[in-house]
Write a structure and sequence with these properties.
It is a single chain. This protein is of the alpha/beta class. The protein folds into 3 domains: 5-11 and 56-144, Rossmann fold (3-Layer(aba) Sandwich); 35-55 and 282-397, 3-Layer(aba) Sandwich (Cobalt-precorrin-4 Transmethylase, domain 1); 146-276, 3-Layer(aba) Sandwich (Cobalt-precorrin-4 Transmethylase, domain 1). The protein contains 15 helices and 16 strands. The strands form 4 sheets. Strands 1-7-6-4-5 form a 5-stranded parallel beta sheet, with helices on one face. A 5-stranded mixed beta sheet has the order 2-3-16-12-13, with helices on both faces. The longest helix has 19 residues, at 247-265.
Length: 400
């Protein structure tokens, strides 16, 4: 018996509104918004980027998860993995009794028709969805519309004989789900490119520089479709993105590959060998633009970027800030340990195909005089976490 799938909520939006406000609302953040995104306390002045925190897709995913728990109070409810990349939100899900199939001891094998499974904002692979459908579980699909748009383009590439080159992280849930769409079409192929350096390697192979083939094979060992043949499958390519990547980097990668195609096949036949669609989501771009504007408008002593360390869009906000000012990417308010000690993820930490790094620094806060701080947050960071961070900033700034 095929699964029942809810894709537009469960008609309980008003029923869970109070719980969502209790868990994620911040009066301090509302005060900042009403005060032109600026707030002062003693020697501290905080300027908050005008686009920050929960985007529509994340807000919708969390809302649907709360509706699911309310709709099925006596049934087992599972998430295929993290609903979004924010530790606070995922903790709240666990506290509500939602189990994670990605946790040790959990697996698809234990599921049956009476179970409810929530698909996260990143989406799931085609094979995962098929397995859940065979089990007959009730499914609640919170996949973001921006992700669905990328999937549509990748399927179109595959149908027309183009390999999808996806700017993203090969192990990221969204990228794995996107890549799987290419395999829905017979002879469909994909290649996941992390950054400019990897794109340049791809370009050399496109240009026929065979001395780099071995390096290509080693670099992309876990980042391409089965039986991928670079001499054949890079003749016609279409560009796509993990929706949370840095826009400027995605555009740069696209230009590099386009010019490699021109070098190899000529400008007159470019359309036969290269395609590209804009697939960075608007919320990701809005947050990047907002923090850039904030840094353009005034000088800061430091910037605080709030969000999960495995959140790509948060990492990219930190990268933007770090080019202009001392920047600390923190996962939670607890990272602000004291007026002299802070734990963060350095923005220059390499982010290859997985893994995070955290370090502790001292004397992060100027000890005397006025201090002006830029604050922003990734698209999966709720307002209450932003508010708690700002409150801690004020406490530490005014304790010296």
């Amino acid at each position: 018996m095929p699964s029942t799938i809810f894709r537009k909520g469960l008609d309980l939006k008003h029923d869970v509104a109070d719980a969502l406000a209790r868990d994620y609302h911040s009066q301090l953040v509302e005060t900042l918004k009403d005060s032109d995104f600026c707030w002062s306390s003693g020697r501290l002045t905080v300027h908050l980027a005008q686009e920050f925190g929960f985007c529509y897709g994340v807000d919708r995913a969390v809302d649907y998860a709360y509706q699911t728990r309310r709709r099925f109070p006596d049934r087992r409810v599972f998430l295929t993995g993290e609903i979004i990349h924010n530790p606070h939100v995922n903790t709240r899900m666990r506290e509500a009794g939602v189990r994670f199939l990605s946790d040790p001891g959990e697996s698809l094998d234990q599921l049956g028709p009476e179970d409810v499974v929530i698909l996260p904002a990143f989406g799931v692979t085609v094979s995962e969805l098929a397995a859940l459908d065979r089990l007959g579980c009730t499914l609640v699909d919170t996949t973001c519309g921006s992700v669905l748009n990328v999937w549509k383009n990748v399927r179109q590439y595959a149908r027309e004989g183009y390999t999808a080159i996806i700017h993203g992280k090969a192990r990221h849930e969204e990228t794995r789900a996107t890549a799987s769409q290419a395999l829905e079409v017979s002879q469909g192929h994909y290649l996941v490119v992390l950054d400019r350096a990897e794109a340049e390697l791809v370009c050399d192979v496109i240009r026929g520089r065979s001395h780099r083939y071995d390096e290509f094979v080693a670099t992309f060992a876990d980042a391409h479709s089965p039986e991928f043949d670079p001499t054949h499958d890079l003749q016609r390519v279409g560009l796509a993105n993990q929706t949370t990547m840095l826009m400027s980097e995605s555009l740069e990668i696209g230009e590099l590959i386009k010019h490699a195609m021109i070098d190899r096949y000529g400008a007159d036949t470019l359309a036969e060998h290269y395609r590209a669609f804009e697939t960075i989501c608007s919320a990701t771009q809005d947050r990047q633009d907002a923090v850039t504007q904030l840094l353009d408008e005034r000088s800061f002593d430091l910037a605080i970027v709030i969000g999960g360390y495995n959140s790509s869009n948060t990492r990219n906000l930190a990268r933007i800030c770090s080019e202009r000012v001392s920047t600390y990417h923190i996962a939670a308010p607890s990272c602000l340990r004291s007026a002299t000690e802070l734990t963060h993820r350095p923005s220059d930490t390499p982010a290859p195909r997985g893994g995070d790094s955290e370090t502790t620094v001292n004397d992060w806060l100027p000890p005397t005089g006025p201090v002006t701080v830029a604050v922003t947050a990734g698209a999966s960071t709720p307002d209450n976490i932003v508010g708690e961070v700002i409150e801690k900033l004020a406490t530490f700034a005014n304790s010296q």
